[in-house]
Amino acid sequence: MANYPETERRLHVREFVLKEATIIANGVRIGCSVRNQHHHGAELRVGVDVDIPDRFLLEVPADDTVYRALVRWRRNERIGVALYSNALKD
Description:
By secondary structure, the chain is mainly beta. It has no helices and 6 strands. A 6-stranded antiparallel barrel has the order 1-2-3-6-5-4.
């Protein structure tokens, strides 16, 4: 039986990165890392037992930006988010 590569379903090519970031929600700051990213989304890594809401701010110091994020999928410590707007930090 032949092994075929998994079909790529993404609409945008992701850039593999390793950036430290902070999830900000309900007055709580949670450290995470950004593993890949494009203009409309990213994959985050957080602790398995950490409760992350469906909507939050994502502060990425390397980008000097705070993004508004919406969770699209979750798998163990990985979270895929849509970045639906952003604003430069003051």
